Amino acid sequence: MICTFNESIQIEGSRAFIRIPFNVWEETGLKGNIPCRVTIEIYTFECKLIPKGNGNYLIPIPKKIMSHLSAEESYNVLFEPIRTLSRINHDSPYSVEHPIRRIDGIEAIPIQAGLCGHCCVAMLAGVPLDDVVALMGKAHASWSKVLEALDYFGISYSAKAVYPKGSSYRLPTCCIVNNDNRFLLWYQSSFCGAADVDPKKTISYIEVYVG
Question: Where are the alpha helices (DSSP H) in the chain?
Answer without folding.
Answer: 24-28, 63-66, 116-125, 129-136, 143-152
